Amino acid sequence: MLTREDDVLQVAADWRRAGRGVALATVIETWGSAPRPVGSHLAIDEDGNFLGSVSGGCVEGAVVAEAAEVIADGRARLLEFGVADATAWQVGLSCGGRIAVFVEKVG
């Protein structure tokens, strides 16, 4: 049986096999009460479809937007979110924690 994280990785692989541009976002570090643990994934395709979670819904929209750029230019990005950074008023973690998310193109 596949775990939820396995499902996300499988869907990303299926999207790639279908010829779609895909990015994978992975939680690489957390501080405080971040809602998802290190290793959590969000798979995003070129049309903005996504599966998984890196923050329980707090910053997924911002990550999906960055993933579109990653798919387009192929350059990975390190994103940091939390209540103490400059984006706190645009996107933030309601729980008060902070997370670092690495977004990379698949394939």
From TrEMBL:
Highest taxon listed in the record's lineage: Bacteria
Residues in XdhC- CoxI domain copies: 15-82
InterPro entries associated with the record: MoCofactor_Util/Proc, XdhC_CoxI
Protein name: Xanthine/CO dehydrogenase XdhC/CoxF family maturation factor
Organism annotation: Ancylobacter polymorphus
